[in-house]
């Protein structure tokens, strides 16, 4: 007995020691940020200097994109067309009459597997074609507004099974409405298309569910080391939703603005890098693996994110835990992949975990690529004061407050979109 206890204690100390070695303490003070050197944006792997946007597009951009795909987020499969579109709702006078509401299921099938993506769409009821914000939500479409007609996972409340009633908190309609300034968008002439990100791939460390399993080779149970993790799957899903939006006559598909908060901000940047059809990309408080520079190791580190969310990135990305310097890229390059399209990076002053300064510095370090296209990036060396937005081809603001999406943020995104769409 004593031997067993002793063995248990030794095993515990050993495992504890190993796991303690895995991650270093969180950096909370600027003075503790290590010295680092960012990989060169404008020099190819063969040491060729890039001087023009054409050289960037032909030589350097593909190298960076392929590296992010294989070593960071994971390679996604080709397009899969939705076999069926079910229009579940089409209401011309929603939100007190100012909006059209449409709810649609996109059904994807491959082999004997299928998934269904439920879209909630609000459009201003005045225009023929509207620009839209396209955004995933965390808690279900019914969380974004108290509108009682919003379906729950594509169904009416009375059609929900017992399991679904357990899973979805139907009394929490509009529980996240403070993050969705829908009326502000509609009044400004923008629509919103939103989808629960779990529809594409449930956010859990399980690769037997969601979109991944539709693409497995016989006998395959999980993505290979360089294949898509969940962030890539969600980004892929954004493009499939875009395939559908292109068929919608009421939507101006040349003006689809991709928006994402936090993990969904990481997703928006990666989706925007891969798919040129998104005309503006907005990352709100996206942090590690999003807009923040990994080499600063401030707040959340690569090892933290890979340990706490082992399914988000490609397995290859785990090779860089506590070893960011070995990456051939850093996150400024992800932002640069979106050029010359406008991109907005937003931080919050109390969101140290997402490293606001690292987000700002990445946006700044992406600027040389915007300059190649004759566009204005970020010139300033210093993080701007709170609530002082900068709107160039790259937009940035440091909102006062915590990790969140607020009306102040939406106000900036609307003004940023107005500015870019009017200048075109
Ligand atoms: C965690 C995670 C972040 C992520 C955030 C979110 O805090 O560490 O990387 O951005 O969740 O998505 O809410």
Task: Give the overall silhouette.
Answer: globular
The unreliable regions are none
Radius of gyration: 22 Å
Major sheet characteristics: 10 strands, mixed
Instruction: State the order of secondary-structure elements, H for helix, E for strand.
Output: HHEEEEHHEHEHEHHEHEEH
Mean pLDDT comes to 94
- CATH topology group: Rossmann fold
Number of strands: 10
Instruction: Quote the distance from N terminus to C terminus.
Output: 78 Å
Give the full name of the CATH homologous superfamily: Alpha/Beta hydrolase fold, catalytic domain
Q: What amount of the residues lies in strands?
A: 15-25%
Count of runs of 4 or more consecutive helical residues: 10
Q: CATH class, please?
A: Alpha Beta
Query: What count of domains describes the coordinates?
Result: 1
Tell me what the CATH architecture is: 3-Layer(aba) Sandwich
